[in-house]
Structure to design on (426 residues):
């Protein structure tokens, strides 16, 4: 009996839906099994520019869609020093896409799934995958509907990380265990808010005690507000965490004048992890199921959709030639993007580095361009000196506990020296 489909995909998040769209375009018969019915709530509303050309290539233009607000940059604001620095995506290195969008995830994910369904992928909602059996020439996927035979399987199950759990290959990234508490506000129309909505920027607030927060403007004068704290602080009730944060932030108070909370408080513990064995002969993992990092730089969706497109390109020849996956070099190439974000996240939590690098007022233009390119998610290129220095240095996890040492090592002077190519402060 020949398999019912060529590729079965677990999960209709951005990774699964984008992979499905590109794979049907390459000629595969694709079936997506999604345990929820859409639209369903999902956190992660801030896209960065590198995701946009991927979606455009798939044929999905977010411009003007009712759930997508154009986003021109990212504003970093320190509640500790009162310093701010804004990165404008149009000031990145050449060929970097110049803007992104803030999206309401429930509708964004639904639009992506519907788009890939129109391209020819079959979506089964309310279909929860429980396990699979891999043989030399096929995979049998089991779930609440029964079973399906396919030639290849893609695990895009997000934080459920089905493949790495089944294999025992899930590895937590030290120091990235964090807890996010978030909600939405409506009628966000104060003069300070209008400034933010005009450019659609995300605001990233640095607060005391290793915490940071996001404010993401959404269509319809709504604002997504969240704080991310170290896991130990997750014991603080969600209500207290958000209220305390609002009390401590004059900028947020001015943005939220006249606004009202419009969604329940939600909390997610987002432990950074990798699937250290991301593929077998016929199964591979994608998106959060392959690796998840702290969300500080809004990298999740971009990592998911870029690597989904690249996967479809890589396995396109197997549409006619039923050979096992050969994905070692694919995963190695994709790791460049994950590792870049992992390293800049690591540095970001060193207070000296973050304050001197992100908030340095008279940053050289080159430095701004190179940093902006990373913040735009254009992290699979090889011509960015800032990125290359980050990657060249051995990975060390230095967190706030190490502040004095980090502060000394990453003084403003050292940062400048490193950027000019003479030092090794990275
Ligand atoms: C607090 C927080 C804030 C974030 N903010 C941002 C942000 O601003 N920007 C950004 O880019 N990213 C952000 N992220 C990360 C982002 O949400 C994820 O990286 C992104 O959703 C990954 O897409 P995915 O398709 O891999 O997984 P998901 O979007 O999670 O999709 C996985 C899908 O698989 C389905 N599924 C799971 N198990 C099964 C099963 N057994 N059978 C069938 N289906 C199954 C799920 O229902 C889900 O629909 C944030 C994350 C957190 C925790």
């Amino acid at each position: 009996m020949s398999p019912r489909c060529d590729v079965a995909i677990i999960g209709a998040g951005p990774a699964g839906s984008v992979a499905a769209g590109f794979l049907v375009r390459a000629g595969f018969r694709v079936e997506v099994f999604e345990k929820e019915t859409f639209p369903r709530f999902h956190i992660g509303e801030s896209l960065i520019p590198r995701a946009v050309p991927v979606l455009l290539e798939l044929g999905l233009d977010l411009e003007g869609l009712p759930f997508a607000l154009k986003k021109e940059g990212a504003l970093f604001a320190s509640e500790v020093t009162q310093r701010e620095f804004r990165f404008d995506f149009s000031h990145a290195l050449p060929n970097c896409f110049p803007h992104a969008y803030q999206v309401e995830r429930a509708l964004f994910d639904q639009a992506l799934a519907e788009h890939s369904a129109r391209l020819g992928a079959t979506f089964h909602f309310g279909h929860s995958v429980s396990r699979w059996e891999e043989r030399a020439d096929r995979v049998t996927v089991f779930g609440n509907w029964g079973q399906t035979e396919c030639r290849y399987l893609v695990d895009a199950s997000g934080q459920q990380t089905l493949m790495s759990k089944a294999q025992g290959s899930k590895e937590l990234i030290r120091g990235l265990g964090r807890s996010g508490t978030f909600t939405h506000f409506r009628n966000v129309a104060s003069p300070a808010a209008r400034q933010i909505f005009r450019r659609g920027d995300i605001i990233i607030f640095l607060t005391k005690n290793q915490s940071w927060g996001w404010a993401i403007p959404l269509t319809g004068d709504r604002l997504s507000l969240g704080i991310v704290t170290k896991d130990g602080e997750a014991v603080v009730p969600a209500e207290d965490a958000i209220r305390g944060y609002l009390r401590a932030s004059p900028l947020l108070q001015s943005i939220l004048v006249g606004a009202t909370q419009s969604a329940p408080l939600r909390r997610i513990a987002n432990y950074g992890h990798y699937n250290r064995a991301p593929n077998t002969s016929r199964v591979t993992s994608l998106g959060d199921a392959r690796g998840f990092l702290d969300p500080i730089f809004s990298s999740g969706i971009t990592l998911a959709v870029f690597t989904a497109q690249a996967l479809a390109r890589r396995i396109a020849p197997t549409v006619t030639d039923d050979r096992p996956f050969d994905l070692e070099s694919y995963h190695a190439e994709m790791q460049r993007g994950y590792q870049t974000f992992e390293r800049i996240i690591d540095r970001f939590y060193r207070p000296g580095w973050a304050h001197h690098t992100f908030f340095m007022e008279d940053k050289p233009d080159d430095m701004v361009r190179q940093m902006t390119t990373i913040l735009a998610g254009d992290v699979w290129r090889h011509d960015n000196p800032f990125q290359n220095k980050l990657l060249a240095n051995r990975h060390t996890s230095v967190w706030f506990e190490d502040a004095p040492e980090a502060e000394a090592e990453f003084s403003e002077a050292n940062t400048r020296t490193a950027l000019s190519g003479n030092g090794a402060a990275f």
Residues 342-419 form one domain.
